[in-house]
Write a structure and sequence with these properties.
single chain, about 130 residues, alpha/beta, Oxidized Rhodanese, domain 1
Length: about 130
């Protein structure tokens, strides 16, 4: 009986930890702008290279083009702020970049839910 309870406890712990591993807190537009201005964020654009070339948040990494070498592009500090974004609030592609950073050991991974569309709609500059 104890072995069965232990197995259920381990399975439950694995389920809970995997659920949290995929959950990334949101960062607001004002907070993201402040982090960018302070030079305290690394951005991951998960919209694909074609979209990236058309316009991305300045300084963002093109995830599609750099996925295999992401570890070399992210900061050495595993507590650094990493923010992944995609197109808009209905897009979940950001999870690819966020999960990749998380897998590399980054502990402060967030999601910019407005995405590039919300960034542009707010009148913020884009890089091409």
């Amino acid at each position: 009986m104890k072995k069965l309870l232990f197995a259920f406890a381990i399975a439950g712990l694995a389920l809970v930890s995997s659920a949290f591993a995929g959950a990334y807190p949101d960062i607001s537009l004002p907070d993201l702008k402040a982090a960018i201005a302070a030079g305290k964020v690394t951005l991951i654009d998960v919209n694909g290279t074609e979209s990236y070339v058309a316009g991305h948040i300045p300084g963002a990494i093109d995830f599609e083009a750099n996925e295999t070498r992401l570890a070399t592009l992210l900061p050495a500090d595993k507590n650094a702020l990493i923010v992944a974004y995609c197109a808009n609030e209905g897009c979940n592609a950001y999870k690819l970049g966020a999960a990749a950073a998380h897998k590399l050991g980054y502990a402060n991974v967030k999601h910019f839910p407005l995405g590039i569309e919300g960034w542009k709609k707010a009148g913020e500059p884009v890089a091409k």
